[in-house]
Amino acid sequence: MTPSVLPAIVPARLEDAPAMLALQRLAFEVEARACGSREIPPLQETVAAIEAHLREATVLKAMDGDRLVGAIRGVITGDTCLIRVLVVAEDQRGQGLGARLLAAIEAAHPRAARFELTTNMVMAGNVRFYLRHGYAVVEQVQHAPTIRLAFMRKAVRA
Question: Is 19 helix (H, G, I), strand (E, B) or coil?
Fold first, then answer.
């Protein structure tokens, strides 16, 4: 048996936006079904919005050969990095890729005093994932009748 090669995490390019949106839509279908709503912010996003992040923010992608299998974005405002849309292809989940992407975006912003993100409380596994990686729920907001968002934060320096 040959050892498997981990997907490479590299900077995304502008031309990756359509593939990133396609992966995002597939990945967040599970969440849409779980809460019975497509009002989830990642499902409302457009290629243009992803392109804007590609121009203005840090966007990383995970590639398994020529196949996009994950992505994450980090948007800096002051000393805070807002993490946007950590997404992993369904067949890659549970293999540590999400943790690698999260660590990579944090490492890309060594001057950030804190990292913040939003996740849907209906996806308890996602909340537990972020808790395991040092994030804490600081606020919950009812986004839609069946969507309760958790605002999470990880302070890395005072």
Answer: helix
Domain range list for the chain: 8-112
Q: pLDDT digits over 111-151, tens only? A: 999 999 998 877 767 899 999 999 999 998 877 777 778 89
The rounded distance, in Å, linking the Cα atoms of 15 and 69 is 16
What is the distance in angstroms between the CA of the first residue and the CA of the last residue of the chain? 48
Distance CA 58, CA 115 (A): 13
CA pair distance 145, 148, nearest whole angstrom: 8
Task: With H, G, I as helix, E, B as strand and everything else as coil, classify residue 1.
Answer: coil
pLDDT in tens, 65-102: 999 999 999 999 999 999 999 999 999 988 999 999 99
Half-sphere exposure of 68 (CA within 13 A, CB side): 20
Give the predicted TM-score (pTM) of the model.
0.90
CB 7 within 8 A of CB 62: yes
Pick the CATH number of 8-112 from 3.40.50.880, 3.40.630.30, 3.40.50.720, 3.30.230.10: 3.40.630.30
